[in-house]
Amino acid sequence: MWIKKVSKDEEIIVFIEPHGLEHSKGLKDEKIQFAKSIKDIEQKINKKENKNIRLEYFLLSVTKYDEIRKGTTDLPTKEDFENKNVLFIKDDQNWPQKLFKKIGVLIS
Question: What is the rounded distance in angstroms from the CA atom of residue 56 to the CA atom of residue 83?
Fold first, then answer.
């Protein structure tokens, strides 16, 4: 998804990946860690190109949170996952609003 805010001369590029988490390693999963890695890429692009581009990454889990919680006692909370830009789309019908709120774009 590509969002251009003319007023701030800012572009936001959001990478959205639908992905199941049934084989996840929790918050250490490489797919979840990519949200952090993409910020390093963002800094390099903005420094090299003298731009104001913000990169974001969201993992939209088709696996319900309770399904990945089965058989484990040390799984991070659902809120911990959401703080790492993982949204459980089968658990929460408001996931689109959460996504847009996290990137700072209001929808009605």
Answer: 13
pTM score above 0.90: no
Write the DSSP string, 35-81.
HHHHHHHHHHHHHHHT--EEEEEEEEESS-HHHHHTT-S-PPPHHHH
Distances (CA, A) of 22 to 17, 57, 66, 77: 15, 20, 10, 15
Would you say residue 44 has pLDDT above 70? yes
> CA–CA separation, 34 vs 28, rounded Å?
10
For residues 65 and 82, give the distance between their C-alpha atoms in angstroms, rounded to a whole number: 11
